[in-house]
Amino acid sequence: MAAALDFDDILTEIGEFGRYQRRNYLLICLPVLFAAANSLSYVFTAGTPKYRCYIAECDADISPEYQTDWLEHAMPGTWDKHHQFTPATCDRYMANDSSYDQAGQCSSSQFLPQTERCNQFVYDGQEQTIVQDWQLTCKENAWKLALVGTIHFAGLVVGTALFGYLADRFGRKLVFLFCIIFMAVTGVAQGLAWDYPSFLVFALLNAVGTSGVYPLAFIIGVEMVGIRKREMSSIVLNYFYAIGEALLGLAAWLLHDWQLIQYALSIPPLCFFVYFWLVPESVRWLLARNEHEKAGVIIKRAAHVNRRELSLELLANFKQQQLDAQNNKPQQKSHEERKIWLAVKQVFASRTLVIRYIIMLYIWAVNAIVYYGLSLNSTSLSGNKYLNFALVCLIEIPGYSLAWLCLRKLGRRLSLSGSLLLCAITCVTSGYITLGNNWLVITLFLIGKLGITSSFAVIYTYTAEMMPTVIRSGGVGIMSTFARCGAMLAPFVPLLGGYYESLPLLLFGASSLTAGLLSLLLPETFNKKLPDTVADAIALGSKRIARTSSSSRCSHSPQKESNI
């Protein structure tokens, strides 16, 4: 039987990140820009513009202005420290029918102190969202706008689970292309929606398609490079994601209309259909599926573009490997399935692992809620909401860089805990101590987003290193899916600001604080052997770590079980 083919060994011959990989890596990064923008487009398409009641006694019949000098006489509102009056959105003072002022005048004598609800509104600026089109105004409709975000995250949950399976079954490339085109088509349909229910349906479908673009680009990118380039490939892809989110803020600032924004994000990705001929299938997937001949064609092409020579021994090994793998495939598949179910049973039988993974689930949920909640809440900050949103997105780039540095210098546990505690401190500070100091609030807000971004980047690596090999992929998938379920609450958190302005940031800070402290109970995995078995995973929390797979199979003592 021929020696097993290892793609990492093959990469040493063709180059770990040569011209061929660099070109394909750039190609798979481009759709991520649009996936990132689509993932948060509802922030602006379903955003709430400034509006107030239309005052028939005072407002012009055509193109009335939002801000006038008589607003304080006609409706309740609040004054800020700059003596700027902000009118109430849905209440006005009742008209005093017994008072008549000169034409063109509007004074307090024309109104009574009692208030009433209004059903006509004046909007500030040129911003056009679904609020105007379908009259989703006032507090009684606020849940409908938040529901758009929740529906989006529900689509992400469905799509993540679905496309992860399909990519393993039918290949990375085809499913990646399907997700891109499906995202584009449903995004255009979202812009063509004729009412609120149809908008929700297309938002759900758009999220399903969007959910597959980044994960599959991540997998394709990691699988095409060598060991020394894997961290780089994942970090750079995250840079593209952050830039794509920021470009959404630019598009919203330039276009103002929710339909135009949706078209701008959805029509260009239709051009990526040419990837069917440009982007190759994952060689690792082909080898795992015993498609050695197809893998050989791609490897030869990569070697040619990278100007490398393949050894004759490697070329001759492909056909023999295919015959050997086909003969052993049925037995291997049955054996692997038994190992997976046995590992799952062992995990639930271990109090140590159950407690450890419950803590991880909580940390994942907090990461998702705070990460997306801060992005959504950025448009509620004082100042230019488009600039604030773009800054909150771009701060992710140094956040991912910080995670990369901390993972190498501080280890996993301190990196995770430190990132969460940084987010906690800055969120609480910006929401409470510095309320009213706009520049300082925004600065602290950005540092909080940097912290939670770093935490999100660390948690992926940390979780994978705590899972036994046989259930590592499924375990990380379960954690990620649970996080997305938690993120379904994020769109509703900004609504709490209507009761107390600082409440959303205080909640983000409190949840990050508890997650950061709980993370200190987890074992350190930096520079330790990846656990192959459940016993290895349990041993991560003990002082004596199993060094070989054979020693890790030995039964563990009660003292090991007591360590989380």
From TrEMBL:
Keyword annotations from UniProtKB, A to Z: Membrane, Transmembrane, Transmembrane helix
**CDD domains, per the entry:** MFS_SLC22
Q: Does the keyword Transmembrane helix apply?
A: yes
Q: What are the annotated GO cellular component locations? A: membrane
What span is annotated as the signal peptide, if there is one? none
Write out the GO MF terms: transmembrane transporter activity
Name its cellular compartments: Membrane
**Keyword Transmembrane carried by entry:** yes
Domain Major facilitator superfamily (MFS) profile positions: 102-527
| UniProt membrane topology term | Multi-pass membrane protein
Name the residues that span the membrane.
25-44, 145-167, 174-193, 199-222, 234-254, 260-279, 354-374, 386-407, 414-433, 439-462, 474-497, 503-522
Q: What is this protein called?
A: Organic cation transporter protein isoform X2
The upper taxonomy is: Eukaryota, Metazoa, Ecdysozoa, Arthropoda, Hexapoda
